Please model this.
Amino acid sequence: MDKEKELEMILDLVASKKYVELKEILKDMNEVDLADILNEIEAQTAVLLFRMLPKGLAVDVFAHLTIERQKEIINVITDKELKYIVEELYFDDMIDLLEEMPANVVNKILLQSNKDERDLINQFLKYPEDSAGSIMTIEYVDLKKKMTVKEALQHIKETGLTKETVYTCYVTDENRKLEGIISLRKLVTSDLDQIIEDIMERDVIYVNTHDDQETVANIFRKYGFLALPVVDNENRLTGIITVDDIMDVMEQEATEDFQKMAAMAPSDEAYLESSVFELARHRIFWLLILMVSATISGSIISGAEEVLTAMIVLNSFIPMLMDTAGNSGSQSSTLVIRGLATGEIEMGDFLKVLWKEFRISIVVGIVLAFVNFLRLYYLVKIDFNIALLVSLTLIVTIVISKLLGGTLPLVAKKFKIDPAIMAGPLITTIADATSLTIYFYFAKLILHI
Amino acid sequence: MDKEKELEMILDLVASKKYVELKEILKDMNEVDLADILNEIEAQTAVLLFRMLPKGLAVDVFAHLTIERQKEIINVITDKELKYIVEELYFDDMIDLLEEMPANVVNKILLQSNKDERDLINQFLKYPEDSAGSIMTIEYVDLKKKMTVKEALQHIKETGLTKETVYTCYVTDENRKLEGIISLRKLVTSDLDQIIEDIMERDVIYVNTHDDQETVANIFRKYGFLALPVVDNENRLTGIITVDDIMDVMEQEATEDFQKMAAMAPSDEAYLESSVFELARHRIFWLLILMVSATISGSIISGAEEVLTAMIVLNSFIPMLMDTAGNSGSQSSTLVIRGLATGEIEMGDFLKVLWKEFRISIVVGIVLAFVNFLRLYYLVKIDFNIALLVSLTLIVTIVISKLLGGTLPLVAKKFKIDPAIMAGPLITTIADATSLTIYFYFAKLILHI
Model:
């Protein structure tokens, strides 16, 4: 791949100390690719290369480095260099940085900022994790409604390079209340003497600092926005969220749901970068809970000892019944949990989901029971009554598992428990126990044990 | 909520035939909100409202309607109205439309386009599903390198409103080869007499028409792009993909992985809008496969009949062992499948994953076995040998399940099978069978049955 060649070439130039040539190459590179390289190579070379970057690029690269590397760089650069980074870093990246750094580094950073900045930083650090406030930034283009298009464009020309985005501009009054928005597309396609007020959009969609980032992501996706304004409880514009940060949120939220549904504590650290103990710790809690709760199924089996000793063959259908119950249930819970996450399914859809899952489970149950009966009776040539027992159990089990799987996430949400945590790992255990209870109940009934 | 009030108000105005007032309200509304309303109300009113919209807005709203509603509208509007929609719709929306409509509607639409357009449409319809080509659009801003900033801005002013985005502009030569890109931010912050060539970015990241949309999404996320150029095999610029479409792709790809890992055929239709039979059909196939493959576990149990009759208590640990095995395995497979999807884990990481999962599984296995032993021996007061047997089985089972779970997705990918399909549903079944085999083997060894 070109990237490996590029890295090799850079390391060669470092080794032969061709710094002029090196500088020339580095300055035209993409900041994300550069950060990838600096993250990969050894610390000393990384710092060396970092200091060769033009100032502006250095800040962009810095924002993409791993926490470890950022720490190392902060520890060796001069106060002047650090001050530049602190000043130029976008506010959301700065907050991310401060949240991750150890106290001594945080102090070093805060020393480079003035009192107003420190107050603002403290305010931002207080927003709840995963709230709109915690991911917004303050570098937006602020216009006034009496400006002409020409004045607005001039304002953007002067300040645009320091803004996180210039593509959506925000029109505020003297109290920072949001009066409208206008896109740069609208500005560059309008006549220069038009007044902002006359061409801005007034029907602005915005979020509150305390709204959940998942809600924010769903708004972005629904409307296809590039940026979204964030207001405080007094409806004053306090920041904006841009689409590039939202893509990270979408990925992170989906990954966390995957983890929760596979019975793990959610983590936003990358797999390959997490330590073994960290990963083990995230997995043990739920495995323990599920291990202990699986003993319920165990005691249902113990309780049916007489049935099983009377007819030991019944034992061999247990895995199939338990697996099918668990799979049926998690099919339903997965769709509903995902629907809740993307905003497609809402609390009000409880009865709709229940009725839908009921009908689906009847269809699925009958098909599976039918196939199972044919297989057992004609292929395996098992006793008719036993084939009937297993098939009937299948239908009832599938119906109950699917109803539980479909509704449990909604019940969890109702009680403000995370649907993915509640319904993901637990549905299998619940479905297992249910299937066994039904099985042994039917066994006594049909086989007269 | 305001939205319900808004809908009520609109329906009131329709009922009282206050069309002038209605038009005034509709024209300032957001296209996505309008489409939501038109999708919800009855067809006749929807068509009535649709025809009241200003032409430009009508096209934007049309792109967000459900397929059903689009069909109904196409069937009643005049050829002239349809022609306008066909001309103004972004090319990617047009392709989506044609892919979903029945043949007679497709013909009606194609009648409104000229031969060149039809050729282009046919070319686009041929791109593989989920490829970059299938989601790109052709409405981009095309600049030449000799233009000045002033000329470029004038060009954008004249053509910008018909482009999907104006925020990234593409510089091509006479053979449509991509020479560079320049952002509108750069243009509006540069002096008017600068030459594009001197300020454009030459290190352009692009994708090929046949690249997978998941790869495209990962590039967007990694670099935080707003748009990405798509080139053909001759490196000619054939289209662009914008970030709003990529957010849909990200959501769709994650949803599909959720579905596959919960043993369902993937579907990009919304849950509440899919029919019962459609949903049932997507679930039955994998349930059947897994039901039949679970009989392997069943026959392992049957094969251990002598062990189980000799010591019926062993039966009651089966659910716990099977569940823990399944859960351990799917924890690992989930993380690896997700890592593969987001591009964090690659094929080359096989040994890293194996080694990591081995160490994690040792930690997890020992903790679980220890807790389990204490519980069985001291709390349940079970025979020492049996407590030992169950705990040893746990450790070995967890190690094997995690190694399988971690590596199976990579093996699947190696053989070009979808990791989520291969490893998601199957890991539980495989882990089940493994755990039972180990259990009975150890039982014979330790209990001398």
User: Anything to note?
Assistant: Chain A touches chain B through 109 residues (CB under 8 Å).
